[in-house]
Amino acid sequence: MSSILDTSSLYSTYGQTVTNAASSSLQSTLGNVNKDSSDEELMNVCKNFEAYFVQKIIEQAKKSIAGEDEEEQGEYMKYFGDMRNEQYANIIAESGSVGLAQQLYDSIKSSNNML
Fold it and tell me: SS3 for 1?
């Protein structure tokens, strides 16, 4: 018999909500960037994009690792796994080791200068 509060569906719903919220927030931020934005604002948006991109890579990589199936994880890891992946991605983006944010920034700046 299933319980009234099914925790697995709760975590799944939470994870999807967080993903949708992050995607919508990033899309909104990117939409507000224009040629009059400061260099700092533009770089911040580029780092946010890189962090989101890296987070998706981390999530896909974890799915491919044996033993990282959602069924095998504890309830807390299901709940906090997305937050952990987001923090890893933010740290990686801030370090500049991937370089996607800088390349995106340079590309946007050069295209804005041509306009």
Answer: coil
11-to-61, 65, 74, 80 alpha-carbon distances in Å: 20, 20, 11, 9
Q: Please state the domain extents for the chain.
A: 7-114
Residue 112 has pLDDT above 80, yes or no: no
Helix axes 75-95, 39-64, angle to 10 degrees: 140
Task: Work out the end-to-end distance of the chain between its first and last CA atoms, rounded to an integer number of angstroms.
Answer: 64
Q: Whole-model pTM?
A: 0.64
* DSSP track, 31-50: HT--TTS-HHHHHHHHHHHH
Which residues, other chains included, contact 84 with Cβ-Cβ below 8 Å and sequence gap of 6+? Answer: none
Model pLDDT for residues 6-15, shown as the tens digit of each residue: 444 444 554 5
CB atoms within 10 A of CB 51: 24
